[in-house]
Amino acid sequence: MTFHTPLPRLPWFTRELLTHLAPARAALLVMDDIVFCEPAELVALRRAAGGPTSWPEAPGMLWEGDLEGIAAGLTAALRGGGDFRLLCAPSTHALRADHDEYTTFFSTSPGRIAAVRQAMRAGAVQEVEWTAHDP
User: Most buried of 70, 72, 130, 133, CB within 10 angstroms?
Assistant: First the structure.
């Protein structure tokens, strides 16, 4: 299910997403494409963690047992305008977001999808309906 990323309300949006990604004791953020420039907040988070600062050279960042770190990284990535994936463990849920300000929540659980949809509707976040067309 895909939503228009509510940039003015990123802290709320991030908390909601993380609630539904649970149990997420670890998360890997993989930057697929940097469209405009390297997200300064993510570079700062990596520098503070002692990791490489160049996203093209090392496109991922891992958090283990640090929910605040996951939240900060997700918020920074959403604000940064790139295309990325957030894969959580041991969860069976994941995120994909892009520079066009769309965020997609993936899950193997229809119940979890319904819960995310309900939370986003309650928060007035616009769901995007994608329809495939023959070429």
Answer: 70
- 65 Cβ contact list (under 8 Å, min separation 6): 25, 26
Contact in structure between 9 and 131 (CB atoms under 8 Å): no
Assigned token pair, 77: 């990535």
SS (H, E, C) 69-124: HHHHHHHHHHHHCCEEEEEEEECCEEEEEECCCEEEEEECCHHHHHHHHHHHHHCC
pLDDT tens per residue, range 22-67: 888 899 999 888 877 777 788 888 888 777 667 777 788 888 988 8
Which pLDDT tens digit goes with each residue over 62-92?
889 888 888 998 999 998 878 999 999 888 8
Residue 118 CA, distance from chain mean position: 18
Q: Per this entry, what is the length of the chain?
A: 135
